[in-house]
Design brief:
- The structure holds 2 protein chains of 2 kinds.
- By secondary structure, chain A is an all-alpha fold.
- Helix content of chain A is 57%, strand content 0%.
- Chain A folds into 2 domains: 26 residues; 93 residues, Cytochrome c-like domain (Cytochrome Bc1 Complex, Chain D, domain 2).
- The termini of chain A are far apart.
- By secondary structure, chain B is mainly beta.
- The radius of gyration of chain B is 21 Å and the shape is globular.
- In chain B, 41% of the residues are buried.
- The chains are: A mainly alpha, B mainly beta.
Chain lengths: 138, 328
Protein backbone atom coordinates (compact mmCIF):
# COMPACT_ATOMS: atom_id res chain seq x y z
CA UNK A 1 0.00 0.00 0.00
CA UNK A 2 2.76 2.36 1.03
CA UNK A 3 4.88 1.36 -1.98
CA UNK A 4 1.97 2.00 -4.28
CA UNK A 5 1.48 5.49 -2.84
CA UNK A 6 5.19 6.24 -3.25
CA UNK A 7 5.00 5.05 -6.85
CA UNK A 8 2.03 7.35 -7.55
CA UNK A 9 3.82 10.30 -6.00
CA UNK A 10 6.94 9.55 -8.04
CA UNK A 11 4.87 9.27 -11.21
CA UNK A 12 3.12 12.56 -10.51
CA UNK A 13 6.42 14.29 -9.74
CA UNK A 14 7.93 12.93 -12.94
CA UNK A 15 4.94 13.90 -15.00
CA UNK A 16 5.05 17.54 -13.89
CA UNK A 17 8.31 18.46 -15.66
CA UNK A 18 7.33 16.30 -18.63
CA UNK A 19 3.99 18.06 -18.90
CA UNK A 20 5.72 21.39 -18.44
CA UNK A 21 8.14 20.58 -21.26
CA UNK A 22 5.33 19.49 -23.57
CA UNK A 23 3.30 22.52 -22.61
CA UNK A 24 6.28 24.81 -23.11
CA UNK A 25 7.04 23.28 -26.50
CA UNK A 26 3.55 23.95 -27.75
CA UNK A 27 2.78 26.76 -25.33
CA UNK A 28 2.15 29.45 -27.89
CA UNK A 29 -0.06 27.19 -30.01
CA UNK A 30 -2.24 26.31 -27.04
CA UNK A 31 -2.75 29.98 -26.21
CA UNK A 32 -4.16 30.99 -29.59
CA UNK A 33 -7.87 31.84 -29.23
CA UNK A 34 -10.13 30.03 -31.68
CA UNK A 35 -11.18 33.29 -33.34
CA UNK A 36 -7.54 34.07 -34.14
CA UNK A 37 -6.88 30.50 -35.22
CA UNK A 38 -9.52 30.75 -37.94
CA UNK A 39 -8.33 34.02 -39.45
CA UNK A 40 -7.52 33.89 -43.14
CA UNK A 41 -4.54 35.57 -44.78
CA UNK A 42 -5.88 38.16 -47.24
CA UNK A 43 -2.62 37.91 -49.20
CA UNK A 44 -2.44 34.11 -49.35
CA UNK A 45 -0.75 32.87 -52.51
CA UNK A 46 -0.33 36.33 -54.07
CA UNK A 47 3.08 36.57 -55.79
CA UNK A 48 3.44 40.29 -55.01
CA UNK A 49 2.76 39.67 -51.34
CA UNK A 50 5.17 36.71 -51.26
CA UNK A 51 7.91 38.88 -52.78
CA UNK A 52 7.16 41.66 -50.27
CA UNK A 53 7.22 39.07 -47.50
CA UNK A 54 10.62 37.96 -48.71
CA UNK A 55 11.93 41.54 -48.39
CA UNK A 56 10.45 41.82 -44.90
CA UNK A 57 11.87 38.44 -43.93
CA UNK A 58 15.38 39.45 -45.01
CA UNK A 59 15.12 42.67 -43.01
CA UNK A 60 13.50 41.35 -39.85
CA UNK A 61 13.78 37.60 -39.49
CA UNK A 62 16.78 36.27 -41.40
CA UNK A 63 19.36 37.19 -38.80
CA UNK A 64 17.77 34.80 -36.28
CA UNK A 65 16.13 32.20 -38.49
CA UNK A 66 18.71 32.27 -41.29
CA UNK A 67 18.27 33.63 -44.79
CA UNK A 68 17.19 30.13 -45.81
CA UNK A 69 14.70 30.07 -42.89
CA UNK A 70 16.21 26.85 -41.60
CA UNK A 71 17.11 28.32 -38.23
CA UNK A 72 20.49 29.12 -36.76
CA UNK A 73 22.09 29.36 -33.34
CA UNK A 74 19.37 27.13 -31.83
CA UNK A 75 16.58 29.30 -33.24
CA UNK A 76 13.90 27.22 -34.91
CA UNK A 77 13.53 26.44 -38.57
CA UNK A 78 10.53 28.04 -40.22
CA UNK A 79 10.34 25.22 -42.73
CA UNK A 80 9.46 22.74 -40.02
CA UNK A 81 6.46 20.46 -39.99
CA UNK A 82 5.19 22.34 -36.98
CA UNK A 83 5.11 25.67 -38.83
CA UNK A 84 3.62 24.00 -41.88
CA UNK A 85 0.82 22.53 -39.75
CA UNK A 86 -0.01 25.83 -38.06
CA UNK A 87 -2.87 27.80 -39.58
CA UNK A 88 -2.32 31.29 -40.99
CA UNK A 89 -4.26 32.63 -38.05
CA UNK A 90 -1.97 30.88 -35.57
CA UNK A 91 1.12 32.29 -37.25
CA UNK A 92 -0.46 35.74 -37.30
CA UNK A 93 -1.14 35.41 -33.58
CA UNK A 94 2.49 34.40 -32.94
CA UNK A 95 3.86 37.34 -34.92
CA UNK A 96 1.59 39.75 -33.08
CA UNK A 97 2.22 38.40 -29.58
CA UNK A 98 5.60 36.74 -29.81
CA UNK A 99 6.61 34.02 -27.42
CA UNK A 100 8.51 36.13 -24.95
CA UNK A 101 9.74 33.34 -22.69
CA UNK A 102 11.11 31.50 -25.70
CA UNK A 103 12.90 34.56 -27.03
CA UNK A 104 10.54 35.34 -29.88
CA UNK A 105 9.76 39.06 -29.68
CA UNK A 106 6.41 40.60 -30.45
CA UNK A 107 6.15 42.13 -33.92
CA UNK A 108 3.01 44.10 -33.18
CA UNK A 109 4.75 47.30 -34.25
CA UNK A 110 4.93 45.96 -37.80
CA UNK A 111 1.65 46.89 -39.48
CA UNK A 112 -0.77 43.97 -39.79
CA UNK A 113 -0.63 43.84 -43.63
CA UNK A 114 3.15 43.40 -43.43
CA UNK A 115 2.71 40.53 -40.98
CA UNK A 116 0.31 38.83 -43.41
CA UNK A 117 2.85 39.35 -46.22
CA UNK A 118 5.44 37.60 -44.07
CA UNK A 119 3.08 34.68 -43.55
CA UNK A 120 2.40 34.48 -47.29
CA UNK A 121 6.16 34.22 -47.79
CA UNK A 122 6.55 31.54 -45.08
CA UNK A 123 3.83 29.50 -46.77
CA UNK A 124 5.81 29.61 -50.02
CA UNK A 125 8.88 28.01 -48.44
CA UNK A 126 9.60 24.34 -49.04
CA UNK A 127 9.45 22.12 -45.97
CA UNK A 128 12.52 20.85 -44.18
CA UNK A 129 14.45 18.35 -46.18
CA UNK A 130 17.90 18.11 -47.65
CA UNK A 131 19.95 21.31 -47.36
CA UNK A 132 18.64 23.84 -49.84
CA UNK A 133 20.13 26.89 -51.46
CA UNK A 134 19.21 30.38 -50.30
CA UNK A 135 15.57 31.15 -50.90
CA UNK A 136 14.91 33.44 -53.79
CA UNK A 137 11.65 34.76 -55.11
CA UNK A 138 10.81 36.88 -58.11
CA UNK B 1 30.19 87.00 -31.57
CA UNK B 2 27.27 86.48 -29.21
CA UNK B 3 27.57 88.03 -25.77
CA UNK B 4 27.17 86.10 -22.54
CA UNK B 5 23.49 85.81 -21.75
CA UNK B 6 23.39 87.43 -18.33
CA UNK B 7 25.68 90.03 -16.79
CA UNK B 8 25.68 87.98 -13.59
CA UNK B 9 27.47 85.19 -15.34
CA UNK B 10 30.05 87.66 -16.56
CA UNK B 11 30.58 88.81 -12.96
CA UNK B 12 30.94 85.23 -11.80
CA UNK B 13 33.27 84.53 -14.66
CA UNK B 14 35.39 87.58 -13.77
CA UNK B 15 35.54 86.52 -10.12
CA UNK B 16 36.70 83.12 -11.21
CA UNK B 17 39.13 84.50 -13.73
CA UNK B 18 42.13 83.56 -11.65
CA UNK B 19 40.96 80.00 -11.47
CA UNK B 20 39.62 80.00 -14.94
CA UNK B 21 42.83 79.40 -16.76
CA UNK B 22 44.40 77.05 -14.18
CA UNK B 23 42.82 74.09 -12.46
CA UNK B 24 43.69 72.78 -9.01
CA UNK B 25 46.65 70.86 -10.26
CA UNK B 26 48.01 73.95 -11.96
CA UNK B 27 47.31 72.54 -15.38
CA UNK B 28 46.08 75.12 -17.87
CA UNK B 29 42.27 75.06 -17.91
CA UNK B 30 42.22 75.19 -21.70
CA UNK B 31 44.03 71.85 -21.66
CA UNK B 32 41.16 70.48 -19.59
CA UNK B 33 38.65 71.77 -22.11
CA UNK B 34 40.61 70.08 -24.83
CA UNK B 35 40.42 66.87 -22.80
CA UNK B 36 36.65 67.25 -22.49
CA UNK B 37 36.33 67.96 -26.18
CA UNK B 38 38.34 64.83 -26.83
CA UNK B 39 35.88 62.93 -24.68
CA UNK B 40 33.00 63.96 -26.94
CA UNK B 41 35.06 63.05 -29.96
CA UNK B 42 35.76 59.75 -28.23
CA UNK B 43 32.02 59.09 -27.98
CA UNK B 44 31.66 59.75 -31.70
CA UNK B 45 34.62 57.48 -32.38
CA UNK B 46 33.08 54.72 -30.25
CA UNK B 47 29.89 55.07 -32.31
CA UNK B 48 31.85 54.61 -35.53
CA UNK B 49 33.89 51.70 -34.17
CA UNK B 50 30.75 49.85 -33.12
CA UNK B 51 29.30 50.33 -36.57
CA UNK B 52 32.46 49.13 -38.27
CA UNK B 53 32.68 46.12 -35.95
CA UNK B 54 29.40 44.81 -37.28
CA UNK B 55 30.01 43.40 -40.72
CA UNK B 56 26.66 41.65 -41.02
CA UNK B 57 24.11 44.22 -40.10
CA UNK B 58 20.72 44.93 -41.46
CA UNK B 59 18.26 47.42 -40.19
CA UNK B 60 14.55 47.58 -39.91
CA UNK B 61 13.77 49.58 -36.81
CA UNK B 62 10.20 48.85 -35.85
CA UNK B 63 10.10 51.56 -33.25
CA UNK B 64 7.77 54.53 -33.72
CA UNK B 65 9.36 57.89 -34.55
CA UNK B 66 9.53 59.41 -31.09
CA UNK B 67 12.34 61.31 -29.42
CA UNK B 68 10.98 61.54 -25.88
CA UNK B 69 7.99 59.20 -25.74
CA UNK B 70 8.60 55.49 -25.27
CA UNK B 71 6.39 52.91 -26.91
CA UNK B 72 6.03 49.22 -26.11
CA UNK B 73 8.65 48.37 -28.76
CA UNK B 74 11.63 46.75 -27.10
CA UNK B 75 14.91 45.82 -28.72
CA UNK B 76 14.82 42.32 -30.20
CA UNK B 77 16.79 39.89 -28.01
CA UNK B 78 20.47 39.83 -28.92
CA UNK B 79 20.31 43.03 -30.99
CA UNK B 80 22.36 46.09 -30.14
CA UNK B 81 21.19 49.47 -31.31
CA UNK B 82 23.79 52.22 -31.39
CA UNK B 83 22.28 55.66 -31.69
CA UNK B 84 23.37 59.24 -31.57
CA UNK B 85 20.64 61.55 -30.43
CA UNK B 86 21.28 65.24 -30.84
CA UNK B 87 19.37 68.23 -29.55
CA UNK B 88 20.18 71.76 -30.52
CA UNK B 89 18.58 75.09 -29.80
CA UNK B 90 19.14 78.70 -29.08
CA UNK B 91 16.92 79.47 -26.10
CA UNK B 92 16.08 83.01 -25.11
CA UNK B 93 18.80 84.67 -23.01
CA UNK B 94 21.09 81.68 -23.46
CA UNK B 95 23.84 80.67 -25.81
CA UNK B 96 23.15 78.20 -28.59
CA UNK B 97 24.01 74.64 -27.68
CA UNK B 98 24.30 71.17 -29.12
CA UNK B 99 23.70 68.22 -26.85
CA UNK B 100 24.87 64.78 -27.98
CA UNK B 101 23.72 61.54 -26.42
CA UNK B 102 25.22 58.22 -27.35
CA UNK B 103 22.77 55.37 -26.77
CA UNK B 104 23.67 51.72 -26.54
CA UNK B 105 20.45 49.71 -26.40
CA UNK B 106 20.58 45.96 -26.00
CA UNK B 107 17.80 43.41 -26.08
CA UNK B 108 18.65 41.19 -23.11
CA UNK B 109 15.42 39.17 -23.40
CA UNK B 110 12.31 39.44 -25.50
CA UNK B 111 10.69 41.10 -22.46
CA UNK B 112 13.68 43.12 -21.19
CA UNK B 113 15.72 45.85 -22.85
CA UNK B 114 18.63 47.57 -21.16
CA UNK B 115 20.22 50.80 -22.33
CA UNK B 116 23.20 52.96 -21.47
CA UNK B 117 23.36 56.66 -22.33
CA UNK B 118 26.52 58.75 -22.37
CA UNK B 119 25.86 62.45 -22.62
CA UNK B 120 27.73 65.62 -23.41
CA UNK B 121 27.06 69.08 -24.75
CA UNK B 122 28.78 72.01 -26.41
CA UNK B 123 27.62 75.55 -25.78
CA UNK B 124 28.64 78.50 -27.92
CA UNK B 125 30.94 80.99 -26.15
CA UNK B 126 31.30 78.49 -23.34
CA UNK B 127 32.70 74.97 -23.39
CA UNK B 128 32.19 71.36 -24.39
CA UNK B 129 31.67 68.99 -21.52
CA UNK B 130 30.61 65.48 -20.57
CA UNK B 131 27.43 65.76 -18.56
CA UNK B 132 26.83 62.25 -17.25
CA UNK B 133 25.32 58.87 -17.90
CA UNK B 134 22.03 57.06 -17.54
CA UNK B 135 21.25 53.37 -17.30
CA UNK B 136 17.70 52.35 -18.04
CA UNK B 137 15.79 49.10 -18.13
CA UNK B 138 12.41 48.43 -19.69
CA UNK B 139 10.29 45.42 -18.84
CA UNK B 140 7.28 44.22 -20.71
CA UNK B 141 4.67 43.33 -18.12
CA UNK B 142 2.15 41.18 -20.00
CA UNK B 143 3.12 38.15 -22.09
CA UNK B 144 0.64 38.85 -24.89
CA UNK B 145 -0.69 41.86 -26.77
CA UNK B 146 -3.69 43.77 -25.46
CA UNK B 147 -5.54 46.92 -26.40
CA UNK B 148 -3.16 48.80 -24.09
CA UNK B 149 0.25 47.29 -23.41
CA UNK B 150 2.08 48.34 -20.27
CA UNK B 151 5.87 48.48 -20.02
CA UNK B 152 7.73 49.36 -16.81
CA UNK B 153 10.77 51.60 -17.04
CA UNK B 154 13.41 52.04 -14.35
CA UNK B 155 16.38 54.34 -14.76
CA UNK B 156 19.36 55.50 -12.76
CA UNK B 157 20.76 58.88 -13.77
CA UNK B 158 24.05 60.47 -12.80
CA UNK B 159 24.01 63.77 -14.63
CA UNK B 160 25.10 67.26 -13.80
CA UNK B 161 23.24 70.53 -14.11
CA UNK B 162 24.84 71.34 -17.46
CA UNK B 163 22.91 68.52 -19.15
CA UNK B 164 20.82 69.86 -22.02
CA UNK B 165 19.67 66.62 -23.60
CA UNK B 166 16.01 67.11 -22.60
CA UNK B 167 15.39 63.37 -22.83
CA UNK B 168 12.36 64.03 -20.69
CA UNK B 169 10.85 66.95 -18.82
CA UNK B 170 9.86 66.58 -15.19
CA UNK B 171 9.04 68.76 -12.20
CA UNK B 172 9.81 72.43 -12.73
CA UNK B 173 12.40 71.98 -15.50
CA UNK B 174 12.50 75.32 -17.28
CA UNK B 175 14.32 77.55 -19.75
CA UNK B 176 16.58 78.69 -16.90
CA UNK B 177 18.27 75.28 -17.11
CA UNK B 178 19.78 76.39 -20.43
CA UNK B 179 21.00 79.76 -19.19
CA UNK B 180 23.75 78.85 -16.74
CA UNK B 181 27.43 78.74 -17.60
CA UNK B 182 28.80 75.23 -17.90
CA UNK B 183 31.50 75.92 -15.32
CA UNK B 184 28.87 76.80 -12.75
CA UNK B 185 26.18 74.26 -13.52
CA UNK B 186 28.41 71.23 -13.99
CA UNK B 187 29.05 71.15 -10.24
CA UNK B 188 25.36 70.56 -9.56
CA UNK B 189 25.31 66.78 -9.77
CA UNK B 190 22.10 64.84 -9.33
CA UNK B 191 21.78 61.11 -8.86
CA UNK B 192 18.24 60.25 -9.66
CA UNK B 193 15.98 57.23 -9.83
CA UNK B 194 13.30 57.53 -12.42
CA UNK B 195 10.31 55.35 -13.12
CA UNK B 196 7.93 55.44 -16.05
CA UNK B 197 4.72 53.68 -16.78
CA UNK B 198 4.63 53.24 -20.54
CA UNK B 199 1.25 52.51 -22.08
CA UNK B 200 1.14 51.74 -25.77
CA UNK B 201 -1.43 50.67 -28.34
CA UNK B 202 -1.30 49.79 -32.04
CA UNK B 203 -4.77 50.39 -33.49
CA UNK B 204 -5.08 50.06 -37.29
CA UNK B 205 -1.45 50.75 -38.13
CA UNK B 206 -1.16 53.67 -35.73
CA UNK B 207 0.90 53.71 -32.58
CA UNK B 208 -0.38 55.68 -29.61
CA UNK B 209 1.85 55.82 -26.55
CA UNK B 210 1.54 57.54 -23.19
CA UNK B 211 4.29 57.80 -20.58
CA UNK B 212 3.79 58.78 -16.96
CA UNK B 213 7.06 59.76 -15.34
CA UNK B 214 8.10 60.03 -11.70
CA UNK B 215 11.56 60.99 -10.59
CA UNK B 216 13.33 61.30 -7.26
CA UNK B 217 16.72 62.81 -6.63
CA UNK B 218 18.44 60.41 -4.24
CA UNK B 219 20.34 63.33 -2.74
CA UNK B 220 17.12 65.01 -1.63
CA UNK B 221 14.19 66.86 -3.10
CA UNK B 222 10.58 66.08 -3.76
CA UNK B 223 9.13 63.54 -6.16
CA UNK B 224 8.84 65.14 -9.58
CA UNK B 225 6.39 64.17 -12.29
CA UNK B 226 6.12 64.47 -16.03
CA UNK B 227 4.38 63.01 -19.03
CA UNK B 228 4.89 62.34 -22.72
CA UNK B 229 2.29 61.38 -25.31
CA UNK B 230 2.91 60.42 -28.92
CA UNK B 231 1.01 59.16 -31.95
CA UNK B 232 2.51 57.98 -35.22
CA UNK B 233 1.94 55.92 -38.32
CA UNK B 234 4.09 54.55 -41.15
CA UNK B 235 3.41 56.11 -44.56
CA UNK B 236 2.41 52.68 -45.92
CA UNK B 237 1.08 49.67 -44.03
CA UNK B 238 2.04 47.06 -46.63
CA UNK B 239 5.56 46.53 -47.97
CA UNK B 240 6.55 46.93 -51.61
CA UNK B 241 7.35 43.74 -53.48
CA UNK B 242 10.98 44.70 -54.05
CA UNK B 243 13.67 46.17 -51.86
CA UNK B 244 13.77 49.94 -52.31
CA UNK B 245 15.19 52.84 -50.39
CA UNK B 246 12.51 55.46 -50.85
CA UNK B 247 9.44 53.23 -50.57
CA UNK B 248 6.70 54.68 -48.43
CA UNK B 249 6.95 51.91 -45.83
CA UNK B 250 10.42 53.17 -44.92
CA UNK B 251 9.01 56.48 -43.70
CA UNK B 252 6.95 57.12 -40.61
CA UNK B 253 5.73 60.31 -39.04
CA UNK B 254 3.82 61.45 -36.01
CA UNK B 255 3.71 64.00 -33.24
CA UNK B 256 4.54 64.10 -29.59
CA UNK B 257 3.69 66.32 -26.64
CA UNK B 258 5.55 66.25 -23.36
CA UNK B 259 6.17 68.33 -20.30
CA UNK B 260 6.51 68.57 -16.56
CA UNK B 261 3.79 68.05 -14.00
CA UNK B 262 5.60 69.79 -11.12
CA UNK B 263 6.16 67.97 -7.85
CA UNK B 264 4.27 66.03 -5.25
CA UNK B 265 3.74 69.29 -3.35
CA UNK B 266 2.27 71.32 -6.23
CA UNK B 267 1.14 68.83 -8.87
CA UNK B 268 -0.02 70.46 -12.08
CA UNK B 269 1.19 72.59 -14.97
CA UNK B 270 2.15 75.66 -12.92
CA UNK B 271 5.77 76.76 -13.58
CA UNK B 272 6.50 73.82 -15.84
CA UNK B 273 7.77 73.66 -19.39
CA UNK B 274 5.80 72.02 -22.18
CA UNK B 275 6.81 71.03 -25.71
CA UNK B 276 5.10 69.66 -28.81
CA UNK B 277 6.15 68.95 -32.34
CA UNK B 278 6.00 66.70 -35.38
CA UNK B 279 8.46 63.84 -35.74
CA UNK B 280 9.65 61.78 -38.70
CA UNK B 281 11.84 58.72 -39.22
CA UNK B 282 13.41 57.35 -42.35
CA UNK B 283 14.56 53.73 -42.14
CA UNK B 284 17.17 53.20 -44.82
CA UNK B 285 17.07 49.48 -45.72
CA UNK B 286 20.36 47.83 -44.76
CA UNK B 287 21.46 51.17 -43.36
CA UNK B 288 20.80 53.55 -40.50
CA UNK B 289 17.56 55.08 -39.32
CA UNK B 290 17.42 58.85 -39.48
CA UNK B 291 15.08 60.90 -37.34
CA UNK B 292 14.20 64.57 -37.24
CA UNK B 293 11.87 66.68 -35.16
CA UNK B 294 11.41 70.38 -34.43
CA UNK B 295 9.81 70.70 -31.01
CA UNK B 296 8.21 73.92 -29.95
CA UNK B 297 7.95 75.36 -26.47
CA UNK B 298 4.32 75.90 -25.54
CA UNK B 299 4.81 78.46 -22.77
CA UNK B 300 7.24 81.13 -21.60
CA UNK B 301 8.93 78.64 -19.33
CA UNK B 302 10.07 76.55 -22.31
CA UNK B 303 12.80 77.02 -24.89
CA UNK B 304 11.42 78.43 -28.16
CA UNK B 305 12.39 75.56 -30.47
CA UNK B 306 14.45 72.43 -29.87
CA UNK B 307 15.72 70.77 -33.03
CA UNK B 308 16.21 67.07 -32.59
CA UNK B 309 18.18 64.72 -34.79
CA UNK B 310 18.75 61.02 -34.42
CA UNK B 311 20.83 58.49 -36.28
CA UNK B 312 20.67 54.89 -35.16
CA UNK B 313 22.03 51.63 -36.40
CA UNK B 314 20.88 48.23 -35.30
CA UNK B 315 23.48 45.49 -35.10
CA UNK B 316 21.32 42.42 -35.41
CA UNK B 317 22.18 39.45 -33.21
CA UNK B 318 25.17 41.21 -31.71
CA UNK B 319 25.53 38.39 -29.18
CA UNK B 320 26.19 35.91 -31.98
CA UNK B 321 29.50 37.67 -32.54
CA UNK B 322 30.59 36.16 -29.22
CA UNK B 323 29.07 32.69 -29.59
CA UNK B 324 30.51 29.69 -31.37
CA UNK B 325 29.63 29.37 -35.01
CA UNK B 326 27.26 26.53 -35.71
CA UNK B 327 27.14 24.37 -38.73
CA UNK B 328 23.87 25.08 -40.46
Amino acid sequence: MRNSRTLWIALILLSIPTAALVAADNSWLSKVPSTDRQRVNPYAGQPEAIAAGNVLFEENCAKCHGSDAEGRHRRPSLRSERVARATDGELAWLLRNGSLRKGMPTWSSLPEPERWQLIAFLRSLPRDGPPAATVSHP
Amino acid sequence: MAQSPHPIFEVQATQKLGRRYRDRSGRPRCQRLVTQFSLCRGLALLFLVLLCAAPHTTVRAQEPPYFVTYSEALEEPGNLEVAQKGTTGSPKDANAFYSATLELEYGAKAWWTTELYLQGQATANDSTIFTGFRWENRFRVLPTEHAINPVLYIEYEDVNGADKSVLEVTGHDSIADFQGRNAASRGDISRTMEGKLILSSNPKGWNVSENWIMEKDMMGGAWEFGYAVGASRPFALAAASRACTFCRQNFSAGAEVYGGLATVHDFGFHDTSQYAGPTAYFNIPHGPTLGFSPQFGLNDNSAGVLWRLKISYEIQQFRDLFSKKEAQ
